[in-house]
Write a structure and sequence with these properties.
The complex is a heterodimer of chains A (281) and B (383). Chain A has 281 residues and is α/β, with parallel strands linked by helices. Chain A has eight helices and eleven strands. Chain A has a five-stranded parallel beta sheet with strand order 2-1-3-6-9, sandwiched between helices. Chain B has one domain: Cytochrome-c3 Hydrogenase, chain B, CATH 1.10.645.10. In chain B, the strands form four sheets. A three-stranded antiparallel beta sheet of chain B has the order 1-2-3. Chain B starts with a strand and ends with a helix. Classes of the chains: A alpha/beta (281), B alpha+beta (383).
Amino acid sequence: MHSKPKVLWIDGVSCYGCSHSFYNYPQIKEILNKIELIYHPLLPSSEFKIQKSDLLIIEGALKNNFSRLDYNLNELISKLIKLSKKVLLIGTCAVYGGMFGEGILFDKDKEGKFYKCHEKMISIPGCPPHPEWIAYAIEMIIENKKILLDKENRPKEIFTYTSHMGCVRNEYFEWKIDADNFGEKEGCLFYHQGCQGPFTHSSCNRILWNEVNSKPRAGTPCFGCTEKTFPKKNLFETETFMGIPANIPLGVSKRAYLTLSGVAKSLKNERLSKRLIDEDN
Amino acid sequence: MKITKKIITKIEGEATLKIHKKNNIIEFAEIEFWQYRGMEEFLKNRPYMDACVINPRICGICGHSHLIATSKAIEDALDVKITKKAEILRDITLGLEIIQNHIKWFYLTLYPSVKSKDYFKALEFTKEISKIIALIAGQFPHNSYSIPGGVTCDLTNLELIKIKNYLSELFNKYQHIMDIEGKSNDLEELFSDIPKTTGKGLNRFLVLGDNLFFKSNGDVKYIKEEKSTSLNKNVMYKDKYFEVGPLARNLDNKIIKKIYETFTDSVYTRIFARLYEVNLIFLYLLEIIDNIEINEKNYTKPLKKSGKGIGVVEAPRGSLIHEIEIENGFVKKYNIIVPTQFNLSNSTKENPSPAQSALMNEDEKLSDFIFKCFDICAVCVSH
């Protein structure tokens, strides 16, 4: 029998949301049974020691003069990266820095302190990342399967989508009908409420959260939490330029988007222009 | 006397315990937190609504409490009233956050400090709890569905029926962990070699929030924060240290009271109150969900642009306070006081905090266990 791959899970500057998100993976037991978890910041594991690993999972950002387990955090991460065969960065903090510091692979849009090791790194951004994405990455790595990556080391099978894809408010987006207010089923949140769905790489509306829902489905805009720009300022308002959203859906020219919006608005969809509950047909 | 330094982990971060001991008996313990993340600074000069996205990220296990405290602080500052429906929904999601926290804490944090135990049954349970939160709030952890003025969701009876059925199914399932009479095999097994009178606190209790069925017994104006020797700030009420949390806020329950009267505020009583609180929350949620008027408004837009406000909630670990100053729609000042600061202040031997008092005169080998019985959240402290 082959021995199980050794996995070391280390925490940088974090809120532990990545771990708690992973706990919601329905088959977490199956995954943990396939590996030898030599350290985890929350789950029962043996005493921490600096050692070799087949897979190093990093949750959280880097920060100068931050202590972790009596070591200097950045030095500790550096040692562990050197001793590992593969590195899985989970969460926007570990990939880009997020709100707490500097990322491992990137420092927002610049190359990060450990970019030189990018060949052995996989990025799973998200604040937090979806449990299924984390499970996917662990499985693919321990089974030595080839993961198709984009230029920010994100698996294309997860991040080639936008969080807009699969949103239940898509009909409103098609007909350019904006939401008047929060707390209503009707309307698209892209025009006023700051939704970043159409230009955020993630599959939140394709692989639902906790298997049942997503933020936009619950009336909350997408905050672009998988991107290097997270968290932008003014998260509940759409930045506009000459009356249209300043950031438009990925892959469309401004001119094309403007034309399409004009046409959709002029061909008013009567059904979607009122409260759904008031509609009889 | 000897002083040993110990780093306590698996507490959503870490703390340093300096134990002063004589013949392995703890004479005094210093509690230090050396991590700092600067959440309050991060909020400055942002539109106040951003706090609803930033603040849940204070903590991955109780971020929802921070979200609700944020909404309440802003509502207080801008004089906004929310509907009964929005209030009930917030109670449901916050109540569920408390439940998932207590179960994870018992099986993932506390149990392993004494003996090993299968923790997958805890995760199987908590993932279902997260699912109910997600039905209302979109996802768990880290949603932002509670905003100043109400909630972003607009539920139908379909979701309400589903939520109610989940609640009653999980309540029944919880009876195997601790039943409504307070019987729990897992709790008794945990204490098979530990005296139930171990680890007494200060026997002084404080409740500041009034969400769910909790009744406040104090006024937030008497709270004082003070610098300590590490990056944690000590918190006092009327110049005294108080214990906050499930024991403090459930002392009027007759089953918890009986245990308290037998063992006073020991580790056992504290753990019992926490586990039993889950039953009380389930029952309360099953009752209030029927009071939701589905056609009531979910959200009222705040009109004022400036003001000062305080939001207090009973979070999983006790009273959580958020204070905000808004000027022209932007955050001018923000201050957060978390429950762990009350329970784990780093004071003196003569005037100890609840956790310091619980550790004193106990066997050093139980230090990890006694420390963790307060359900510490290191990331919340190091906000």
